Amino acid sequence: MKAFRVTREFPLALRLLLINQFGIDIGFYILVPFLAAYLGQELGMSDALVGLVLGVRNLGQQGLFLLGGSAADRLGPRAVIIAGCALRTLGFSLFAFGTTLPVVLGASLLNGLAAGLFYPSARAYVALEAGDRKAEAFALLNVYATIGSLIGLLLGSVLIRADFRICAVAAAAVYALLTVAQAMVIPERPAPAADRSTVLGDWLEVFGNRRFLLFSLATTGMFTVENQLCLLLPAGAKQASGWEGAAGVLLGAGAAVNLFQMPITRALERHGGGSRWVGGGLVLMGLGFVPPLLICADGPPDGLREVVPRMTIMLIGSLLLFVGTMIAHPAVLEMIPRFGRETLAGTYFGLFYVFAGLTAAGGNAVVGWTMDMGKQYECPWLPWIGCVAFGLSSALAVTLLYRTRLLPDRPEVSAVEGTVIPSGLPERGGAVAAEASSGPAGPTAGSVGRWEAGLLGRTRLPSPGRATDEAREKPPR
């Protein structure tokens, strides 16, 4: 498959991180989807206690995203990734051998802290290692994560028939292997030694980046809508088919479509870059909830003659959601480290995931509330309309940021087709303008030297640079 062929084009460290993401999602989905049922049915916990256990995991995760990102910036991402996997190994092991509320709470907290460590640090490592191919690298990360999650779900569905503890042991074993493998093979990438300030100073710099904060708020709808693969769409598929496992059909179709991630990402890069198409991807994600509106008020299906057309409608909606995610998600991740200094990539990812996690939790609460209201007042279309509104409003916000040039410049420089200059000449529009403003000077020794050095590699003329309020913070490329 093309995705696996493209993987070989990247450096060894990046290939190992992709395999790491694959393993992380296998281990996670072997256990976590079955955790709530285990706590309520086998341990006899009330709904309130189940919610407390799951909430502690989310709290630990959100609380450590920013710290995990800062640690990656200061200690190097490799050590933080390894520490996160080791913590999750311990957390899943506690689920296997502990049945009391304090032990289960501790296990849940450890798992949340682990995610807070390795998610921003792994994304920062990918961003730093991928160079100007960040969009493709994050697209591949999406492919490996999707395949890993499906394999994990399949394994978990088989193992849960025996015992939940077997699921927990299997998940802990996956993370233990990842911890050892990462310590042995992932190369060290030291934190950049530039402009080292305090952690508080780094946080103030990131929180003071208005463009980044606006972007993080604008993309909140993406995570709300994306999370409906675990809430609203499974409920809609069950209602459409009368079958508990109908959500697996939607997920399987999404996994098949996800194999086309790389052609989609490369096509977008050839036509203006992912940042130009994020709004369009979000529109597709929102429109994915329109087809289910056609059947959401229908009663239980009467045989295959009703199940097939209803599930076809649900498949169309879910595929729109998956394709929109494939367009928007890699481009969003690719832009995050370009909002500020390269030395703060981990901190930027950490804060972004804080926004994403809080949004996912709050958005799910709103969607769940509209589902209850829809049943109570006989308006089943309410949650679907709400998700359409989430997607389209987020698309509008991101499009406004793009049109007002508040999104970061593309890493590649563009040019009039067929016109080239030596690569030794300045790449930034601002730099070219600065030299031009000095007057019509002849070729100096320095410029001739740069011209001759550039004959070995050629690059395109720069496009006009975008004026931004954080331009001085961008690292030279």
UniProtKB/TrEMBL annotation:
Keywords: Cell membrane, Membrane, Transmembrane, Transmembrane helix, Transport. It is found in: Cell membrane. The chain crosses the membrane at residues 12-36, 79-97, 103-126, 138-160, 166-186, 246-265, 277-295, 315-336, 348-369, 381-402. Residues 430-477 are annotated as: Disordered. This is MFS transporter. GO terms for cellular component: plasma membrane. It is a multi-pass membrane protein. It holds the Pfam family MFS_1. Residues 13-411 form the Major facilitator superfamily (MFS) profile domain. PROSITE patterns: MFS. Its main location: membrane. Residues 467-477 have a biased composition (Basic and acidic residues). The keyword Transmembrane applies. GO terms for molecular function: transmembrane transporter activity. It comes from the Bacteria.
